[in-house]
Amino acid sequence: MARSGIWTDSWKELAIAALAVAVFALAAHLISRPRVSSNEVNVYGKLKDLWAAEDAFRESHALDADADGTGEYGLLAHLDRPWVEGVQGDSAERNGYLYRVFLPVGVDSREERWAAYAWPVEAGITGNRCFVINQEGQVYQAPNAGPLYDGEDSPATGDEAYAEGSTNLEGSIVSDGFESADGQIWTPTGA
Ligand SMILES: [Ca+2]
């Protein structure tokens, strides 16, 4: 009887330990997932804010390098608060994502277009998906599998969401179900 009691206790301890591990794993999953997804949801509003900031900046004529009366779009460091805060190099970090604005070469082109990408500071930890917006104001997302874009070590460089071979942000962001220059399929997103 004593022997079977010991075995019963051992199995109980094992079961409790297994349950504890399962609960811990579930808790870790529940804690990390919402942060990742809320970071991703945050990006949509931030990029729409950035779009409004770029429009306001151009309209203000704060930059008019060729003095033709038409303002040019600016980099993050040119824009109003809160975009200027925490800008390092060309990037700003917000809620686990890096944001970077790209401008085309040529003053006339900078009067017409820009693009901004947002990608995770630490892919798989602070976020998964990558996002892009340009002067047209629509936010697009892509899965960022790999990951393609991951912090400062693996950044977007400007033309990735455009057609293969496109340079200087010419054309449109590819969103018709075909792959863009980075091999991803970008889809419009509302959040
Ligand atoms: Ca100008």
Report on this model:
- It is a single chain.
- The protein has one domain: Fructose-1,6-Bisphosphatase, Chain A, domain 1 (2-Layer Sandwich).
- A hairpin with a 2-residue loop joins strand 1 and strand 2 (97-102).
- It is elongated, with a radius of gyration of 23 Å.
- The chain has a 6-stranded antiparallel beta sheet, covered by helices on one side.
- It has 191 residues and is an alpha+beta fold.
- The protein contains 2 helices and 6 strands.
- The structure holds calcium ion (CA).
Detail the poorly predicted runs: none
Termini, distance in Å? 63 Å
Could you say which small molecules are bound to this protein? calcium ion
Provide the helix percentage: 25-40%
Tell me the structural class: alpha+beta
What Rg is obtained from the alpha carbons, in whole angstroms?
23 Å
Shape: elongated
Keywords:
binds calcium ion, 6 strands, 2 helices, 6-stranded antiparallel sheet, alpha+beta, 191 residues, 33% helix, Fructose-1,6-Bisphosphatase, Chain A, domain 1
Give me a quick take on this structure.
The chain is α+β, with helices and mostly antiparallel strands and 191 residues long. The protein is 33% helix and 14% strand.
Explain the layout of strands and helices.
Blueprint: H1 2-60, E1 91-94, E2 97-102, H2 107-110, E3 115-120, E4 130-134, E5 140-142, E6 187-188
Antiparallel strand pairs: 1-2, 2-3, 3-4, 4-5, 5-6
Bound molecules: calcium ion.
Calcium ion binds next to loops.
